[in-house]
Amino acid sequence: MAAIDACGSLDYSRDCALQYARDAEAELAGLRRVAAARVPIYHGQSQLAAVVARLQADHRLQIVAQDVVLPMAEEGLVLALGHLLSNAVQAGASRVEIGFVDGVLTVADDGAGISVGNRDRVFDPFFTTKREAGGTGMGLAILRGLLAAHGAEIRLDPGPQTRFHIRFAGA
Predict the structure, then answer these.
(1) What is the Cα–Cα distance from 148 to 143, expressed in whole angstroms?
(2) Three-state DSSP class for 1?
(3) Tens-place pLDDT, residues 8-56
(4) How many Å apart are CA 153 and CA 170, to the nearest integer?
(5) CA separation, residue 53 to residues 41, 67, 81, 119, 142 (Å)
(6) Which of 53, 118, 154, 168 has the greatest number of beta carbons closer than 10 A?
């Protein structure tokens, strides 16, 4: 009986060690993505309409947006807005509005929103409410790093609706 108990404990310890290694690797991969996002490779301008057209194909959302020129290359905006749209879909949104006024891009959705208790933590690395579904909590941290590398900053509106504001430097 002792041999079986010891074996069971060894199997359990091995499984725990393997899970720990997988978790650590996921966190390291997230940190690598944060570091890579800080490389300013998306300088330039893009038409919001072109970005929305690309995103519309990948997201089952009604996207309402202005056709304006934004101070970031199309690939960078596709990455940034694509992440916000994916989060909106996960929150049950069916519609997203994107506007641009006085150098600020606003992205608002009609999803379930972000709880008051989580609003101050959404940009923290490794913070997630979806760990069981494979979430690493790196998405908005990476997005913030990507935007910062291009002189932009992102913030979450304090209201009940999920509304992000992205301010572009010099826009």
Answers:
(1) 9
(2) coil
(3) 555 666 676 777 677 777 766 666 665 655 566 667 889 999 999 999 8
(4) 12
(5) 22, 11, 12, 30, 23
(6) 154
CA distance 98 to 64: 6
Largest Cα separation within the chain, whole Å, is 74
Q: Which of 99, 87, 90 is nearest to 123 (CA)?
A: 87
DSSP string for residues in 17-55: HHHHHHHHHHHHHHHHHHHHHTS----S-EEHHHHHHHH
- Checking if the pLDDT of 4 tops 50, the result is no
The token pair at 100 is 């641009």
User: How far, in Å, CA of 162 to CA of 22, rounded?
Assistant: 32
Per DSSP, the three-state class of 133 is helix
pTM confidence score:
0.73
Phi and psi (nearest 5°) for 158? -75, -10
